[in-house]
Amino acid sequence: MSPHDAVKHGADVLSLVAFDRGRGKHTGGGSPIAGDDHPRWPRTPLRVKRQSRAGQLRRVREYFYRQVVDRQDDQPLRVLAYSLVPSPRARPDEDWGTLQAEADLLGYEIAARLHDVAVPVTTTYLQASSASQGVYTPPWDRPGWREAERQLREGLADGVIVLDRHNISSDDDEYHAVIKHLGEHCRAFLHLVISDEPVAPT
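^ thats the sequence. predicted structure below, dont judge the formating
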């Protein structure tokens, strides 16, 4: 079993609340709404939940980034540029150009460029975010990502830079597992060009 298979349950897990008549799911905060035969709880909109989880995931990424920076001896951070292209005919050159520009902006050195081709999983259904294009093989089953992890474990780079989280995974738990694995087992960080938490409108 992959180390990523462990699912961590945190504050986002729905809790069952026993009522006088049967059981119901409590999916939001606040007081019960009176009426009918039993109390109803106001629901937290899905968008609010996703933004809350996105903030948690961003904080986990930042935590491992700070750990890497604290270990550095005034040397530029070395990163692996990683891209997930949609088909075998697609080339990652445009992605790599964007990743190089971001690395230059932040003073990172790109140690290597790696990519995988997204392969749809037709026999599996997962409820993914609205931004996802589908369900693909988990990162640890992709040859390019496995090579990235090998180089990180061997100390050839300090982190991975990608365009957005969907190059890793659109599933929150899977994405969280990847961030933790990079930080705890590879002593590396993940940098996103497009943040995993939307910026609030001003």
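The longest strand covers residues 109-117.
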